[in-house]
Amino acid sequence: MLDPLFVGCAVDRRFVTPLAAMIRSLLMNRNPERPIEFYLFALDLQIPDRERLEATATGEGVSIVWVHPDHARLQGLPSAPSLSLYYRLLVGNALPESISKVIWLDADLLILRDLGELWNVDMGDNAVLAVQDMAIPYVSCALGLGEWRALGLPADAPYFNSGVLVIDLNIWRREDIGARAIRYLRSRKRNIALFDQEALNVIVSGRWGALDPRWNIIASLAGRRFQRNPHLSAEVDRRLQEDPWILHFAGYWKPWILPRGRHPYDLYFHYLDQTAWSGWRPPASLPGGLRAFYHDHLRETLYPVETLYTAIRCRRFPEYLREIHTRNCGGYQ
């Protein structure tokens, strides 16, 4: 039997079924010789949902530990779509001291490769391993770090996506990374675009190692003609499209808001059907049909409007204009 693998995840009522699909995909593609222990940070989860998640995470050597986050430590942070977004910042204190490494996974992922391979990646002296963000590859991108100049960072400093993290908990605890990220967020409430992800990019700047981009592929962008990946070679770009290891349904375009029949979104329902939510599908509706029409026929042309809307919503319009001018980030042909 191999050494156990520890996985941390946050979940609230909106992401119960996505988490179930993610867990099932992880278990169906794992090496059964390696035990897996899930630490689930739950927000307002009903008992029936907990029971169905436990029924989903079945298998020899698989266990779930429910974590009750200390919300007092998150007081005074910028208002986010869900408080659970900040739970990864508590991982150092919430997990037992005996655990020295954890893989943190967002709920809206599909794990298509044995996660043991990610666990075995050499961390070196890095506090965190992560994938450079496909949509926000550099700190100077519109949704990157609003104060990258004041922080003394070069414009082309890479920016990572926090949906998949390998965390050295010894370094995390010793350097108090979670608490420092929380302090950063409290001090800059009015210029935060992506909450905990932005804070972590500041605190571990220069202390994180880049993973193979196949470990965190944004499903709504990969292979789309409107998406440029200036930080990737043509060969690497081709490999991530042909052989994805983790698909990330980041952003607006989630499988559960679109009708079926769209690759790679149908993979989500394949794994969901192996869970206690088997058979669930989004109900047919006029809004769903309109979303599908836009996704299939208009998005290639109107993608810059999407990014403009996101920049305005995140109060980053000036940065958006600069990004278009410099064309140093993905998404503009």
The CATH homologous superfamily name equals Spore Coat Polysaccharide Biosynthesis Protein SpsA, Chain A
CATH class: Alpha Beta
Report the span from N to C terminus. Answer: 50 Å
Low-confidence stretches: none
Structural class: alpha/beta
Sequence of secondary-structure elements? EHEHEHEEHEEHHHEEHEHHH
Overall number of structural domains: 1
Strand order in the sheet with the most strands: 3-2-1-4-7-6-8
Which CATH architecture is right? Alpha-Beta Complex
Biggest sheet, open or closed, and with what strands and sense? 7 strands, mixed
Number of strands: 10
**C-alpha geometry:** globular
Rg: 19 Å
Beta percentage is 15-25%
Describe the protein's architecture and organization.
The chain has a 7-stranded mixed β-sheet with strand order 3-2-1-4-7-6-8. The model has no long low-confidence stretch (mean pLDDT 89). The protein has a single domain, classed as Alpha-Beta Complex (Spore Coat Polysaccharide Biosynthesis Protein SpsA, Chain A), CATH 3.90.550. Helices cover 34% and strands 16% of the residues. It has helices at residues 16-28, 47-56, 91-94, 115-119, 169-174, 177-187, 195-203, 234-242, 265-272, 286-313, 317-326; strands at 5-12, 36-43, 62-67, 101-105, 109-111, 128-132, 160-168, 208-210, 217-218, 246-248. With 333 residues, it is of the alpha/beta class. It contains 11 helices and 10 strands. The radius of gyration is 19 Å and the shape is globular.
